[in-house]
Structures are given as structure tokens and as C-alpha cells.
TrEMBL record:
PANTHER family: FMN_FAD EXPORTER YEEO-RELATED (PTHR43298:SF2), MULTIDRUG RESISTANCE PROTEIN NORM-RELATED (PTHR43298). This is Multidrug-efflux transporter. Keywords: Antiport, Cell membrane, Ion transport, Membrane, Transmembrane, Transmembrane helix, Transport. InterPro entries: MATE_fam, MATE_MdtK, MdtK-like. It is a multi-pass membrane protein. It comes from the Bacteria. It comes from Psychroflexus salinarum. The keyword Ion transport applies.
């Protein structure tokens, strides 16, 4: 036997990947599960259920957009912490961590006051009007109080992930999800003689309390379990500028991403209340799948940054192949489960026949695109861990403005409505996945 066959291929073990990925999956799906539980509970209230469901879907999409945009410091701090962990230089980012948490807190306050003041203008831009617009304003002004809670929590979660630990975030997210679902039933429907039914406002209050629970737990793990602290240094950490630069590029990337989601919801709202209700269900299921698959992307983010810091390029290349394979398998499992219960899934969220008919007619496209999504999400995660924020920005700008938008315009013009929206999303994800795979192969395969 030749000596070559005795040399083991440098790889990250299956156990090491899943130690990060599985808790990240559970933590990741907790947030969309909160939104899905809100929609399921709100969509089954007796009074104005379709309007309430539409309002919850519009607000949920806008909240996700804002949080995704502002939470890019989570990704940036995760990448820097993991890279410094890999090079055994964690001491160099000790003052950076509390400065990043403060930055997220201040940004969240700014965004809250601006968006709460302009709530009517914002949701009118989604083509919401009448009762739907009234519902969106009241629901949003309560939900938006959670911005500081969520964004500080996310910054701390980024630190955890950089330290190769997603278990703490999982525990926080599960607790928050359980609190939210329990309070949803109590506050939305009420209890005769004890708690009045608060409908949409009740769901919003439940979410705020759940976010507070998550933050309290995250602070506990941060203070007790990590080598970092909350005490601020007024000497700016030299890594703060690279972090802000990385976060700014990811900000622009996520802005482009959310322009696509905004356009989708705006067009659906313009088609009518049944269309935006169906779109709300489809979008939240798509987001749920995305966060589910994103657990392996989080593993790629955390481990990829660490391997880059250690200059272990062969292990990095093998990591990309392994996590892509695992993610595609998960996508296929999700597709299979949803195919079996295809008609029953819509009934969880709403009983209106027109809404369910629209949902069922398009849901197959959401399922068909999942393997493509998984590849895009995997390489998104790895590129974030490697600090490749500029390339990620450019890919999203091209995919949104040269892929998604033209496709939507053309297919909407010929009257495809919800089909136009979801075919445009499919094109969008194809561009993203192809661009990331080609770039990674050209840059890192040669370094192995």
C-alpha cells in the first residue's frame, strides 16, 4: 500500500459540524416559529381574520427586514471572534465585543423612533389600506419596542457563534419561543372573566415579553460562560473599523435582499387581501425553511472563520462539501414532509377557501427551490465567516436588480401574480447559489 493512501484527508468531523449546526438549527427556527405561531393564532380569530392575517404578515416581513439589516453586526462580530479564536488571539477583540453590543443598542433605538413615527407612511408603501393599515400600525408600534431587546441579543449570539458555541443561543431561543406561544393563546384569545381578548395587540405584547426573556438568558450566559465582559473601553478597538466596514457591506447586501421581499409583498397586497394573506403564509414558511437550513450555514460561518484564522485551507474546502451535502439532505426531507401534508399545511394558518386555494396553487414552487436555497445559504454562511462581505454584497445586488426584479416585472405584466413572485424568487436564488459556488471554487480550491 502506498504511503499516499495512509494519509487522512484533513476534514472537520461530522460531530464537530453538528455540535454547532444542530443547536443553530433549533435556535434559528425559533424566531420564524414565533412568527408562524402568531400567524396561525391570529389567522384563526373570529373577527376580521383575513385582514388581521394580512397585517401580521406585512408587519412580520418589515420587522424581519429591519432586524436582518441591523443584525449584520452579529455576523461581523462572529467572523472576527472565530478568526481570532483560530489564530489564538482572542485577547485582541475583548474590548470590541462590548463596543459592538452598544452599537447595536444605539442603532435599534434610532430605528425604533424613526419607524414608529412614520408607521402609516411605511405600511401605505406596502399598499395596505383601510382596516389592514389600521391593524398594521397598532401591531407594529408595539412589536417595534422589541428592537433593542432583539438586536442586543443577536449581537451576543454572534459572540457565542464565534466561540463555536450555538447551544447557549438555542436554549435562549427555545425559552423565548415557548413563552411567546403560551402568551399568544392567553393574550390573543383571552380568558373569560380574567384576561380580555387583545387580538393583534396581544400577539405583539407576547413577542415583547418573549424577547425580554431571551435577552436575560443571553446576558447570563455571556457574563458567566464567555471570556468577555460588558465593561466599555473608551479607546476604540482597532478591529472596530473593519467590523463596521464588514457590517456596512452586509447591511447593503441585506437591504437588497429585503427590497426583493418588499416588492413581493407590495405586489401581493396590490392583488388583493386574499393574495397578501396567502403570500404571508408562503413567505413565513419560506423563512422557516431558510432558518432551518441556515443551521449548517452557521456551522460554516463559525468553523470557516476559525479555519481561515488557522490557515487550514484543505479543511475549509472539505468543510464546504460536507455542509452542502448535509443541507441538501435536510432540504429534501423538508420537501418530502410538506409534499405528504401538502393540503393540510395551509389549514393550520387560515380556513378561508380563497386564501387556501391561492396558497396551494403556488406552494409547490416554494418546495421545489429548497435544494437551490440550501446551496446558496451554505456558501453565504461560509463567506460571512471568511469576511467576504463585499462579494456577498455584489452578488445580492446583481441577483435582486438583474434577476428578481426583471423577472417579477415581466411575469406580472403577463398576469401570473403569485406565480410571478415565486418564480422571481427561484431565479434570485439560482443566481446567488451559482455565483457563490463559482467564486469559492476559484479562490479556495487552488489553495488546498
Amino acid at each position: 500500500m502506498s504511503s499516499k493512501t495512509n494519509i487522512k484527508t484533513p476534514k472537520v468531523s461530522f460531530k464537530e459540524i453538528n455540535t454547532i449546526a444542530i443547536p443553530a438549527i433549533i435556535a434559528g427556527i425559533a424566531e420564524p416559529l414565533i412568527s408562524l405561531s402568531d400567524i396561525a393564532i391570529i389567522g384563526n380569530v373570529e373577527e376580521n381574520a383575513v385582514e388581521a392575517l394580512a397585517a401580521a404578515g406585512i408587519v412580520g416581513s418589515f420587522l424581519s427586514a429591519i432586524i436582518w439589516i441591523l443584525a449584520q453586526t452579529k455576523t461581523a462580530i462572529s467572523a472576527l471572534v472565530s478568526q481570532h479564536l483560530g489564530s489564538n488571539r482572542l485577547h485582541a477583540v475583548k474590548t470590541l465585543v462590548p463596543q459592538t453590543i452598544l452599537l447595536n443598542f444605539l442603532l435599534s433605538l434610532l430605528i425604533y423612533f424613526i419607524t414608529a413615527f412614520f408607521a402609516e407612511l411605511i405600511f401605505s408603501a406596502y399598499n395596505a389600506e383601510g382596516l389592514i393599515l389600521d391593524y398594521t400600525k397598532s401591531y407594529y408600534r408595539i412589536r417595534a419596542l422589541g428592537y433593542p431587546l432583539t438586536l442586543v441579543t443577536f449581537a451576543i449570539f454572534g459572540v457565542f457563534r464565534g466561540l463555536q458555541n450555538t447551544l447557549w443561543a438555542m436554549k435562549c431561543s427555545l425559552a423565548g419561543g415557548a413563552v411567546n406561544i403560551g402568551l399568544d393563546f392567553l393574550l390573543v384569545y383571552g380568558i373569560d372573566g380574567f384576561i380580555p381578548a387583545m387580538h393583534l395587540e396581544g400577539a405583539a405584547i407576547a413577542s415583547i415579553i418573549a424577547q425580554g426573556v431571551m435577552l436575560a438568558m443571553a446576558l447570563y450566559y455571556f457574563i458567566k460562560k464567555t471570556p468577555f465582559y460588558l465593561k466599555l473601553s473608551f479607546n476604540l478597538n482597532p478591529n472596530l473599523k473593519p467590523l463596521i466596514s464588514m457590517a456596512s457591506n452586509l447591511f447593503l447586501r441585506t437591504l437588497a435582499l429585503n427590497i426583493a421581499i418588499y416588492l413581493a409583498n407590495s405586489y401581493a397586497t396590490d392583488y388583493g387581501k386574499n393574495y397578501i394573506a396567502a403570500q404571508s403564509i408562503l413567505m413565513n414558511i419560506w423563512l422557516f425553511f431558510s432558518f432551518f437550513i441556515d443551521g449548517y450555514a452557521n456551522a460554516g460561518n463559525a468553523i470557516g472563520g476559525k479555519l481561515l484564522g488557522a490557515k487550514a485551507y484543505t479543511k475549509l474546502w472539505n468543510l464546504s462539501k460536507d455542509i452542502s451535502k448535509y443541507a441538501v439532505i435536510i432540504a429534501l426531507i423538508l420537501m418530502g414532509i410538506c409534499a405528504i401534508f401538502y393540503n393540510e399545511i395551509g389549514l393550520i394558518f387560515n380556513k378561508d377557501e380563497q386564501v387556501l386555494m391561492l396558497f396551494s396553487s403556488v406552494f409547490w414552487i416554494v418546495l421545489l427551490m429548497q435544494p437551490v436555497n440550501s446551496i446558496a445559504f451554505m456558501f453565504d454562511g461560509i463567506f460571512k465567516g471568511l469576511g467576504e462581505a463585499k462579494y456577498l454584497r455584489n452578488v445580492l445586488l446583481i441577483a435582486t436588480f438583474l434577476g428578481f426584479w426583471p423577472t417579477l416585472l415581466i411575469l406580472d405584466y403577463i398576469g401570473l401574480k403569485l406565480y410571478a413572485i415565486w418564480i422571481a424568487f427561484f431565479v434570485w436564488m439560482l443566481i446567488r447559489s451559482i455565483a457563490l459556488v463559482v467564486k469559492f471554487r476559484s479562490k479556495y480550491l487552488a489553495a488546498t
